[in-house]
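Re: beginner question about structure tokens

> Can someone show what the tokenized structure looks like for a real chain? I only ever see the sequence side.

Sure, here's an example I had lying around. Input first:
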Amino acid sequence: MHPSVAWVNTLVPPRPWLGLLGVILLLLRAGAGMAAPADPWAPFESPWFDKVSSAEGFPPAIVTALAQDRQGLLWAGTMVGLARYDGYRTQLFDIRGGPGKGLPDAYVRCPAAAC
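And the corresponding structure tokens:
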């Protein structure tokens, strides 16, 4: 062996764990670049409220009763009829249309889904 090589070997002792440390650091750096997948349900963790008004077809009257049926439809009894809201649009039921074609009374106190 060349004398200068022997001298270098005595200054820097062998470190077998150094290679393992390098591999671990590379793996950690590679893992840090990968982001955790976003939770698709995160927007639903906190409640939010939507205002439903006459712009969506809701009757401009006082709501006297409110119920939700098994299909998730929202029924609102008002002083001028009954409104069904599905989250997108409103359908109104009232006394118009003649006898037997509408509600018996415009003032809805309790939707059948709630009684």
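Each token stands for a local structural state, so reading them left to right follows the chain. Residues 55 and 90 are 10 Å apart (CA to CA).
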